[in-house]
TrEMBL record:
Keywords: Membrane, Transmembrane, Transmembrane helix. GO terms for molecular function: sodium:proton antiporter activity. This is Na(+)/H(+) antiporter subunit G. The lineage of its organism: Bacteria, Pseudomonadati, Pseudomonadota, Betaproteobacteria, Burkholderiales. It holds the Pfam family PhaG_MnhG_YufB. The gene is mrpG. The keyword Transmembrane helix applies.
Length: 115
């Protein structure tokens, strides 16, 4: 049983490494901030989640529960999308231009000095 869990953990690490590699390539190849923000956020969440699930399987194979890995995985799955959303909102607020068409109502209007 231990060998099966360790082989499954190795497979999860390979899948996670693939997602992390795709995220890194997307970070380098995409042309603007918004696209560069999207690729590593999604890929790193899946990559780190896969590595932590593999770690949980290895600790389970040795007879220890993987509560710490589970909590870290949940923390990453909650915080990565929130931080990416906040970065995108800050870029919109600073009127950072994108090469992709942005709907007009997505950009907040600046207040005038009279208000």
């Amino acid at each position: 049983m231990t060998t099966v869990l360790e082989n499954l953990a190795a497979l999860l690490i390979l899948v996670a490494a693939f997602f992390l590699l795709v995220g890194a390539i997307g970070l380098l190849r995409f042309p603007d901030f918004y696209m560069r923000l999207h690729a590593p956020t999604k890929a790193s969440t899946l990559g780190v989640g896969g590595v932590l699930l593999a770690s949980m399987l290895v600790t389970l194979a040795h007879g220890h529960p993987g509560f710490a890995e589970l909590l870290i995985t949940l923390f990453v799955f909650v915080t990565a999308p929130v931080s990416a959303s906040l970065l995108a909102q800050a870029a919109l607020h600073l009127r950072l231009h994108s090469r992709a068409p942005v709907p007009r109502d997505a950009v907040p209007e600046r207040r005038t000095a009279e208000e």
